[in-house]
Design brief:
mainly alpha; elongated
C-alpha cells in the first residue's frame, strides 16, 4: 500500500516543494484547529442552538465537557511535541461524532470531510505517522 502521487510529489527534497509543503501543512493545520477550537467555544458560549444540542447529548454539563475537550485537543494538535497525540485524539473524537450523527440520523458528510482533512494534515505534518500508516521506510 502506498500514498497518493500528490503526496509523493510533496515529499521530494526540492526547496520549493519543501516550502510549498510547509505552507500547505500550516494552512491545513490552521483549518483543523479552527474547526475544533470554534466548535469547543461554541459549546461553551451557549445559545439557542447549543441548548438544542445539549438535549441530544445528555445535558449541558456534557456539552461543557465536550467543549473543553475540543479546546484541549486543538491545543495538543497545534503544539508540535504533542501533535501526534492531538491528531489521534482528533481522529477518535471525529469517529465518535460520526457514530452519534449516524445513530441520530443526521448527515455525516461534513464529518467525513473533516476526518479526511485531519488525516491528510496529520500525514503531512508528521511524516513518521505516514511512514507507519503506509509501511514506508
Amino acid at each position: 500500500m502506498c500514498c497518493p502521487q500528490w503526496l509523493k510529489n510533496l515529499k521530494t527534497n526540492n526547496k520549493m516543494n519543501s516550502k510549498t509543503k510547509n505552507i500547505i501543512t500550516w494552512i491545513l493545520t490552521g483549518i483543523a484547529v479552527f474547526i475544533f477550537a470554534g466548535s469547543g467555544i461554541f459549546k461553551l458560549v451557549g445559545g439557542d442552538a447549543t441548548t438544542e444540542m445539549a438535549k441530544g447529548l445528555g445535558g449541558g454539563s456534557n456539552l461543557v465537557i465536550l467543549g473543553v475537550l475540543e479546546l484541549i485537543i486543538a491545543g495538543l494538535f497545534l503544539y508540535s511535541r504533542t501533535g501526534i497525540v492531538g491528531a489521534l485524539l482528533m481522529i477518535a473524537y471525529m469517529g465518535g461524532a460520526m457514530a452519534i450523527g449516524f445513530v441520530s440520523g443526521h448527515s455525516i458528510i461534513l464529518l467525513i470531510i473533516i476526518q479526511i482533512l485531519i488525516w491528510v494534515t496529520s500525514v503531512l505534518k508528521f511524516p513518521e505517522l505516514g511512514q507507519r500508516l503506509f509501511n514506508r521506510k
